[in-house]
Write a structure and sequence with these properties.
Blueprint: E1 3-4, H1 9-12, H2 22-31, H3 38-54, E2 60-61, H4 71-97, H5 103-129, H6 134-145, H7 152-163, H8 179-204, H9 215-261, E3 268-270, E4 273-274, H10 288-293, H11 300-305, H12 329-336, H13 339-357, H14 365-368
Parallel strand pairs: 1-2
Antiparallel strand pairs: 3-4
Helix pairs in contact: 2-4, 3-5, 4-5, 4-6, 4-9, 5-6, 5-9, 7-8, 8-9, 9-12
Length: 379
């Protein structure tokens, strides 16, 4: 596949399709009823239909493209926080003041907003926290605080990227593990794992876990400010609606995490040592429309190879190097909601993956049950 230069407004324009969700919030708030269904309909089903229409895209941009040429690509991630912030807190004020929305209509509205902040906001936050500029990292932190999941930054950067597909990584879904069991495990283990990672990193520098450099102080302050704002705008009802959209967003994030690495494990080499991360440790998809909405998140193997590579420059890995999903991420996440259907579709693919890449492993039970030793020197 020939490299191309992605710079300019026209190549970036499809990645701005996320903005199409914002008018749908206005419609759902103003008209009530079942208009909120337009939001999950857009993010899950319309995009999947567009995948069928536009097909796949396996072309690769020139990875040496200068950052300055990516202005319009970067811009959509930079402007997203104020838009999402206005959507969440504007809706809290409106829903608690307007008299025409019933309780169920308010829940529907904030379910839709949670789909927006989870499907789009988390993906953009993920892109931003991987970058080196102060502005982008702060915007990433603000997006995470708006869904009460600030520890994701620590867990993702210090744990997931180092120890994905090993027992140390809570968000690597095990073979045959249903999503709902996985979700409960991640909610339980993720914050604790992130805290231990920061504590150990500070200890290596000779600092206490309570040192002001611990980002958990920032996480607490930002999340506390969001909670207080929800209370100020809508009282207890406003806080409840804010928390509900956060829960929906977290569910959206973790179901994508579930899909990305389901059943894919790094080989244990003995004595707590594991092979290096390789392209075949992530599920990929080349469906064009989903990659527009999720800013190339489905090129996940390359992201693990070069975590700071900006999304327009992520490279596609072919089926000979990385496992491919039959459908785009939105369709696969819907399938994951029904574990028997998910296993029927995905377990044969995992077994084929094992035979191809690890024919020498005869007993997969320790991998399936998460019983292998923790990696040596794991944070």
């Amino acid at each position: 596949m020939n490299d191309s230069t992605p710079g300019g407004l026209l190549p970036a324009a499809p990645f701005w399709m996320s903005l199409g969700t914002l008018p749908l919030i206005v419609l759902a708030a103003a008209w009530g009823g079942f208009w909120w269904l337009l939001l999950p309909g857009y993010a899950w089903f319309l995009v999947t239909a567009l995948d069928g229409l536009f097909g796949t895209d396996e072309s690769n941009a020139d990875p040496t493209t200068d950052t300055q040429a990516l202005f319009w690509h970067r811009a959509v991630t930079i402007v997203w926080f104020p838009l999402q912030f206005a959507a969440i807190f504007g809706a809290i004020w409106y829903a608690t003041q307007a008299g025409h929305l019933s309780g169920w209509e308010k829940l529907g509205l904030f379910f839709g907003i949670g789909v927006l902040s989870g499907t789009i906001g988390f993906v953009y936050a993920h892109e931003l926290v991987h970058q080196k500029t102060v502005l982008e990292r702060w915007l990433g932190d603000l997006l995470l605080a708006s869904v009460l999941y600030s520890h994701f930054r620590t867990e993702h950067l210090l744990v997931h990227h180092s120890w994905v597909s090993t027992p140390r990584d809570a968000v690597t879904a095990r073979y045959n593990e249903g999503f709902w069991r996985f979700f409960a495990r991640v909610l339980r283990d993720g914050p604790v794992s992130a805290w231990h990672a920061e504590r150990r990193q500070l200890a290596r520098a000779g600092r206490s876990a309570w040192d002001r450099r611990n980002p958990f102080w920032r996480y607490a302050l930002l999340q506390g400010a969001m909670i207080l704002l929800a209370l100020a705008l809508g009282g207890i009802q406003g806080l409840a609606l804010f928390a509900f959209q956060a829960l929906v967003a977290i569910w959206q994030l973790e179901v994508v995490n579930y899909v990305e690495h389901y059943g894919l494990t790094r080989k244990h080499l003995g004595d707590g040592r594991y092979e290096h991360i390789k392209p075949h440790h992530s599920w990929n998809a080349s469906h064009r429309a989903t990659n527009w909405l999720l800013i190339n998140l489905q090129r996940h193997s390359d992201h693990h190879t070069r975590p700071d590579r900006r999304f327009p420059l992520l490279q596609t890995h072919g089926a000979d190097q990385a496992p491919q999903l039959p459908l785009g991420y939105p369709a696969m996440t819907v399938l994951a909601m029904v574990p028997p259907l998910w296993r029927r579709r995905m377990n044969p693919r995992v077994r084929a993956w094992r035979k191809r890449f690890y024919p020498e492993i005869a007993d997969w039970q320790p991998y399936n049950r998460g019983e292998l030793p923790m990696p040596r020197n794991a944070l």
